Amino acid sequence: MNLDKAIVFDLGGVLIDWDPRYLFRKMFNDEADIEYFLKNVCTSEWNSRQDGGYPLAQATADKLAEFPEFDPYIRAFYGRWLEMIHGSVEDTVEIFRELKDAGYYIAALSNWSAETFPLVRNSYEFFNWFEEIVLSGEEKQLKPAPDIYHTLLKRINRHAEECVFIDDSFDNIVTAKSLGFTGIHFQSPQQLRKDLEAAEIL
Questions:
Q1: What's phi and psi for 200, nearest 5 deg?
Q2: DSSP conformation class of 69
Q3: Where exactly are the structural domains of the chain?
Q4: pLDDT of residue 2
Q5: What is d(CA 30, CA 110) in angstroms, rounded to the nearest whole number?
Q6: 6-17+87-198: CATH number
Q7: CA-to-CA distance for 76 and 13, rounded, in angstroms?
Q8: In sequence order, which residues have a C-beta less than 8 Å from that of residue 79 and are 6 or more positions away?
Q9: 18-74 pLDDT, tens per residue?
Q10: Nearest-CA neighbor of 37 among 85, 78, 82, 73?
Q11: Biggest distance spanned by C-alpha atoms of the chain
Q12: 106-150: pLDDT as tens digits
């Protein structure tokens, strides 16, 4: 094990199973309608703006003015946001537990709204295991732009070369590697475990 390394986790898609489809399958009768809505109305780009600090209420009002015919669905996006979470990714949480028990310094770097994160902050014990949590919504900075990575490094007092960064977004990993992080593109807990073992982290 290389305990000199700090481990940095992304949250959504790695430790938390978040997907707006969990909610909208309760509201739409057809998967094609869900995909249309998420690609053309409440898009990932739109949601990312709120992850960067744009107010949820204003974002909802903006979208209602643009697509009044989708009123109940737009209101539900943040009004029923908790229904987009299908719990934690337990196999990844177990890896986190092993790393923590081994003595690693562990931080989080996530694109997450400062308004929605408090809704789940106390629902999962592992949030308390982090030494530091850096959220885009609080910093008004978004991955994959480099600024938030620099904010993280200052906060944890580390150089990029001292950190292993785990994220399910390939673009986020590309930035991390360009800055000097060891990057692991998360695709499954099983693959993550293998990559950590290959890097002699686990």
A1: 60, 35
A2: G
A3: 6-17+87-198, 18-84
A4: 76
A5: 31
A6: 3.40.50.1000
A7: 21
A8: 60
A9: 999 999 999 999 999 999 999 999 999 999 999 999 999 999 999 999 999 999 999
A10: 73
A11: 56
A12: 999 999 999 999 999 999 999 999 999 999 999 999 999 999 999
Distance CA 193, CA 202 (A): 8
Q: Which amino acid type is present at position 154? A: K
Give the residue from 7, 6, 5, 13 showing the smallest Cα distance to 110.
Answer: 13
Distance CA 72, CA 75 (A): 5
Does residue 149 contact residue 160 with C-beta atoms inside 8 Å? yes
Q: What does the block give as tokens for 163? A: 């950190």
Query: For the whole model, what pTM was predicted?
Result: 0.94
Q: Which residue has the tokens 């986790």?
A: 9
Q: What are the helix (H) ranges across the chain?
A: 21-24, 31-40, 44-51, 56-66, 71-79, 90-102, 117-120, 136-139, 146-156, 170-179, 189-198
